[in-house]
Amino acid sequence: TQQALGEIERITKSISGIVEQASAPEVPAQRLAVLEREASTLREQLLRTAKTEALDGVRPLQGDPIRFEAEKELGKTLEIILPNDASRAFDIPEFAFTNKDAIINTIVTVRKANEQLQKLRDALAAGQGELQKTALELDVASQNTEAAQASVRDLDDALALAGNTGVGIRRDPEGALGSVKEIDPRALKLLES
After folding, report:
1. In terms of pLDDT, which residue wins out, 184 or 129?
2. Which of 98, 142, 171, 191 matches a 20 to 30 Å C-alpha distance to 115?
3. pLDDT score recorded for residue 185
4. 102 secondary structure, DSSP code
């Protein structure tokens, strides 16, 4: 999506340059026709670029939602929906450089397209921020899960050791008091930590 946005930005800048050339005073009609064709070609390229698919077949610039599910670990689904202005070529109409009014209207439309492109970039940046935040939460949840599993294992080991020690004490309570040195070294290790 970032790459497609970069391409769209390049295209809109090229269109802006063409429109500037067309708005210059005393441009011959033949040159205006060439500029019009070039701008129309770029508009078509913009529409094709907006249809770019992500690896999973999602077309975020067409308004398809981008989903990231972390339900198992976090119980959370992140959904990002970008504005689909690119799918409409940012409302840039077919080019007609036949008169100055048409050129001025095109200039205004291209400026609006650049503003919409910036909003799209901002929305993408916000979505990336949310994605990074969710990924961080997922990482913390994973670490917490690992720590909890380690604590459960340690507790299981301690309970098993305590059970074995309890059996030994019940069998010979007097001997147990006198034979502290025979206590399993793992029990002493647990008591130290």
Report:
1. 129
2. 98
3. 65
4. H
For residue 155, the one-letter residue type is: L
Burial of 82 (0-12, 13-18, 19+ CB in 10 A): buried
Per-residue pLDDT tens over the stretch 84-104: 666 565 667 677 777 788 788
The half-sphere exposure of 169 on its side-chain side, counting CA atoms within 13 A, is: 10
Give Cα 53 distance to the centre of its chain.
15
Cα–Cα distances in angstroms (integers) from residue 99 to residues 31, 85, 139, in the given order: 13, 27, 59
CB 110 within 8 A of CB 43: no
Residue 147 vs residues 144, 153, 181, 190, 192: alpha-carbon distances, Å: 5, 10, 32, 17, 20
Distance CA 158, CA 15 (A): 72
Tokens at 11, concatenated: 């295209």
Please say whether the beta carbons of 142 and 73 come within 8 A.
Answer: yes
State residue 136's pLDDT score.
Answer: 80
Through-space distance between the first and last CA atoms of the chain, rounded to whole angstroms: 51
The predicted model gives 74-83 an average pLDDT of 59
Which tokens sit at 85? 């202005």
Instruction: For the chain, list the strands marked E by DSSP.
Output: 66-70, 76-80
Angle at 125 between CA 53 and CA 11, to 5 degrees: 55
